[in-house]
Amino acid sequence: ASPSLAPSSDVKIELENAELWRRFHEHTTEMIVTKTGRRMFPTLRYRLSGLDPNATYAVLLEMESVSDCRYKFQNGRWVVAGRADPPPLDANHRQGRTYTHPDSPAPGRIWMRQPLSFHRIKLTNNLLDQNAHIHLSSMHRYVPRVIVVKLHEYFTSMPQVVASASFPETDFIAVTAYQNEKVIQLKIDHNPFAKGFRDNGGAER
Amino acid sequence: ASPSLAPSSDVKIELENAELWRRFHEHTTEMIVTKTGRRMFPTLRYRLSGLDPNATYAVLLEMESVSDCRYKFQNGRWVVAGRADPPPLDANHRQGRTYTHPDSPAPGRIWMRQPLSFHRIKLTNNLLDQNAHIHLSSMHRYVPRVIVVKLHEYFTSMPQVVASASFPETDFIAVTAYQNEKVIQLKIDHNPFAKGFRDNGGAER
DNA sequence: GATTTTTGCACCTAGGTGGAAATT
DNA sequence: TCAATTTCCACCTAGGTGCAAAAA
């Protein structure tokens, strides 16, 4: 139970709130993208272990394209609708799908102390957006990959990827408006910011 | 007007919102300290120039004790009330008066791009507070000092202080409740969060 | 037409104010 | 009694929701 110095191969990444993600995944998760950037719900939360408590790490999140297809929602189901659009490039000629966790860089001890949350991450469909948001194409599928990078005395030698993981239940389709009512209901039921849309259901008061 | 590579001695630190600070200073600035931590108003805002755009820096803020005295507010004035209490030590046996700007470490280019703000800093009188707040003693005087540290390849050699500055107009007395009505009025008039206490003054509704 | 995107909104969460009363 | 501190509060700022209508 006490933390120990482990070789890189023992670095472990776990999805903290996997159960909630599975409830969405069951109905095909949708995430809103907007011009100004929209947070994800559920939030991506991971637990790290096996890091060197005193070494310095950065943690990245990358949105990986899951298929070569474009999708549409038809007759209550998501179906393929042709080949994927080519990934658009931003002003810096990059795909802009990588996000650095704001606590980076930090010692392993800090990363392992408590689950790390990507709640501040924002998804956008606006290529001109410069606010470090993640650029995605609507109606395309993605899966988040978390990447742990060890920094060797910062810049003296190349950073080294010591672990990376993507969880199938966190796969989602980017949309500009929700398509599936079941997904909407799960968002309303579980996201505190959507409380205003909940039925009060019971005989309270 | 174009940024240039300057030797450390040309690093410049300016107080961004000096005029507002002077209006408070005129009446002796007071800052509230609480158990849970209270923000400062006015906010400390500085402008940096003359850094190496590509070198890595951290920016710190330290609260320096200004006098050996304890103060009290009597007959509408701040007067000396004996010798200062010894600075209490926190659980880590440190005075806990240094705050690292959350953007640290970052390249000089980033620090110079826009004024840097310490609006998230919180003052506390609670020694058990572990939330990286600044510990101060009520009824004592302090002046904030901003310190720019150059990080040489992170940990390979000692960090080097390349500049530091404290501005007399940012001097203040820590209090648990405001003493001077003029200071209260300036806070209410200028802090957006205190808008609820403003007289609507005009003939509006 | 039909589908996809944008905009403005009421309704929330989250948390920063000084006042006033209670406490130390 | 007095001075200093703590607690709770109404009233704000700031910004995250899905909805509905409008626009593309």
From TrEMBL, chains A, B:
Keywords: Developmental protein, DNA-binding, Nucleus, Transcription, Transcription regulation. It comes from the Eukaryota. The keyword GTP-binding does not apply. GO terms for molecular function: DNA-binding transcription factor activity, RNA polymerase II-specific; RNA polymerase II cis-regulatory region sequence-specific DNA binding. Its main location: nucleus. One of its GO terms (cellular component) is chromatin. Residues 87-106 are annotated as: Disordered. GO terms for biological process: cell fate specification; positive regulation of DNA-templated transcription. It comes from Plectus sambesii. This is T-box domain-containing protein. Residues 193-204 have a biased composition (Basic and acidic residues). Residues 15-199 form the T-box domain. It is found in: Nucleus.
